[in-house]
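Thanks for the sequence, V.! I ran Acyl-CoA synthetase short-chain family member 3, mitochondrial right away. Repeating your input here for the record:
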Amino acid sequence: MRVFKVIVGPQDPEEYWGNIAQNTIWHQPWTRVLDNSNPPFSKWFVDAELSLVYNAVDRHVDEGFGSQTALVWDSPITNSKRSLTYSDLKKEVSQFAKVLRDTYDVKKGDRVIIYMPMILETIIAMLAVARLGAIHSVVFGGFSAKELSLRIKHIEAKLVITASCGIEPNRLIKYKPIVDEALIRAEVPELPVIVYQRENICQTELKPGRDSEWQDLIEGASVGDLDCVPVLSNDPLYVLYTSGTTGSPKGVQIPVGPHAVVNKWTMKAVYGMKKVSWRCMVTYSDMGWAVGHGYVCYSPLLHRNTSIVFEGKPAGTPDAGQFSRVIAENQVKGFSLHPLPFLLVGERCDNSTKEWASHHFKVPILDHWWQTETAHPMTGHCIGLGNTLNPPKDSTGRPVPGFDIRVVDENGKHVANGEMGRIVCKLPIAPGCLSTLYGNDEGFVGHRLSISRLEEVLISHPDVVDCAVVGVRDELKGQIPIGLIVLKKHFHQEDLSSLKEELVQQVRSNVGAVAALKILLSVNNLPRTRSGKITRKCIADMAMGLSIKIPATIEDATVFDEIRQVLVENLNLDIPSPQ
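Predicted structure:
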C-alpha cells in the first residue's frame, strides 16, 4: 500500500487546528472546530466571526508595528518602486473601502471583479473589498473579453475594478477595451467600472455615467479609518475561477476563517518565515493565480512579513538578473517562484532546473505541490517543522499536516511502491481549501472535464465535424494540449494550413492565450465506442508513446492505425502498434 501521511502534534485534527486558530483574533468564538456532518461540505470554526483584513493589517498597527513595511512594489518594467507601511496600507485600504461603500453601496456578501496588473492598487482593492465583508474575484489580465464576461455574469458582480493598462516586456495591454467588450458580452453594459489610471504610462477614456477614475474617487473620500466588517468563518473570502475546464465557469470558493488560520500558519510551518520586521518574502506570480492570492497578498500580511510585489517577467524586463537584484536589495528570506518560466504550471520542477538554481543561488531548492482548490501547499518540505533541506532529487515533499494523501489505481485500489496511480485525498481535507464551487454545490462533487472548453471552440467551426483534445509531453512546459480534428467531407486539403491558424486564433480569442493550443492534427475519424464515446485515454496514451490495448467496445479498430501514423509523423514519437 502506498500511503503518505504526516501527523504533527495531536492526532485529533480538531484539537490540532483549534490550537493553531488561537493565534487568530476572532470577533466571535467558534462553537465547534469542525462540522463534518455533510461531507464533502466540511465547515471549520463553526459560528465564529472574524475579519481577515483586521488580522492582516489593523492588528499589526494596533500592536505597535505600524511603521513596519508591509508591501514593496518593484517594477523594473517601468523603472519604478514604491512601498507602504502597515499604517499606510490601513489608511489606503480604509479610504478605498469608503469609496466602495459610500459610492457603490458595496456591502457584506456582494461580489466585485478585479481585473488589474501587478501594482499595489490590486492588493488595496482586494483588501478593501474584504474589509467590507464582500467577496472579490480577481481575473488574470491575460484572459480574453469572453472569459472575463463569463466570470462577471456568473458571479453577478456589483462592479468591476480595473486599470488603464498592464505591461508586458514588448507591449502594452489596454485593459479598458477588454472590460468594455466583456460587459457587453455579459449583457450588463452599464455595470459600474472603477479605473486606476496609470498616468505616466497609459490613460484611457471613461464612459460618462458609468466609469469613474480611482484617483478622483479617493480625493473625494472622507478622511479617517473605517472599521472592518466581521463575517462568519465559512463565508467566502474570494472566488477564483479555474481556466480551460468546462463550458460553464468553475469558481473555487475559499472561506475566510480557515484561510486566515492556515495560510498564516504555513508561513512558519512550511516556509520557515519568522515574524520580524526584516523578513521579506517575494513570490513571482500574477495576482490572478492562487499563488498570488495566498503568497503575494494574504499570507505574508497575516504573518506580519513584508511582501514584495514584482511587476515584470523572468526575462526581458530588462534581463533575468532582476530576480537576483530584488532578492539582494530586500534581503529576501522567502523566495517562491511560479514555475511558468521553466515548465507547465502545476507540474513538478525538473531536476536540471533545481540543480542549476541551487548552484547559482547557493541555497536549497525545495519543490512543493498544491493547486487553486487547496489555496496552500498539499505536499512540501515543511521547514518550520524540521523537515530536511536536502530531500531526494525527485521529491515534492511529504503531505502537509491536514492532508491524508494516497495513490490508487483506476478502481480506487492502493498501488504498490514504484507504480503510477491517481492521487486522492481523504476527507475531510485540511481547513483553508475550497468549501464548494461558487453557485454550484452539485458540481463540487462532480467530475472535472478539463478539455471540454477547448473542444467546444474547435467544434464550433463549420469545417470541423468532430474533435478531441489530449495532453502530450513538452520539454519546456511539461505538458501541452493537442487537438485531433475531423473535417467535413469536401474540405480542400490545400486550405488545411490556414484553417489550423484560424482555429488556433479562435481558441486564443475565446479561451485566452493561456490555453496554449497550437498543434492541430487532421484525421479521418476518431475512435468511438459503440455507444458513441470518444476513447480519449487511448489517444492520450498513444500521444505519450505508450502501448495501448484496443477496447472491445470500439466501433472501428482501424482508426487507431491512422491516428498512430499521424502522431508518429507530427510528434516524432516511437509509438507501438495498437493491440
